[in-house]
Specification:
With 164 residues, this protein is of the alpha/beta class. It contains 6 helices and 7 strands. The chain has 2 domains: 40 residues; 114 residues, Oxidized Rhodanese, domain 1, CATH 3.40.250. The longest helix has 38 residues. It is rod-shaped and about 95 Å long.
Length: 164
């Protein structure tokens, strides 16, 4: 009877050890997937702010924030368009490459600073709206989409690069 209890106890112990090992292996595999996403720059970050829409601002408001140094201007257009001309001091962040550039974007953009996205649309630029939405989903709280964008800014004769 004593030997039977020992064998049963040993079986229970082995079963418990197997459960611990299997659950540990599952945990490691799950975490490896997350590490792989970070290594491959697949930025999938969600915050409570993800449901907040970016505000839309016009030329006058954008210029006021530019003059006051209150915001970072972010060009949502492709790199070729950015290179042809952009708002002075703006950074290029084509909306389609945000996920690829995610780690460098997070390192470069302070979350507390206001950001203004723009593109080449006149009154309704989907690229700047999409970029603003994605930045908001990354946790940036102060994101505005500048309606009118590059063409309106350039037509007003406001500071651009390269200087025309």
């Amino acid at each position: 009877m004593q030997e039977f209890k020992k064998k049963r106890g040993l079986k229970i112990l082995i079963g418990a050890a197997a459960i611990v090992l299997i659950s540990s292996a599952i945990g490691v595999l799950a975490n490896l997937s997350l590490v792989d996403q970070l290594i491959n720059s697949e930025c999938v970050i969600h915050s409570q702010a993800s449901h907040r829409e970016a505000s839309r601002i016009d030329l006058a408001e954008a210029k006021k924030k530019f003059d006051g140094g209150e915001a970072i201007f972010i060009d949502a257009r492709c790199l070729d368009e950015y290179n042809w001309g952009h708002i002075k001091g703006a950074i290029s962040l084509p909306v389609d490459s945000l996920e690829m550039q995610c780690p460098s974007v997070i390192a470069q953009l302070p979350q507390a600073k206001e950001m203004i996205t723009y593109c080449s649309g006149s009154t309704d630029c989907q690229l700047s709206i999409d970029l603003a939405r994605k930045l908001t989903n990354l946790g940036y709280l102060h994101v505005n989409a500048f309606f009118g964008g590059w063409p309106v800014w350039e037509a007003a004769g406001y500071p651009t690069e390269p200087e025309n």
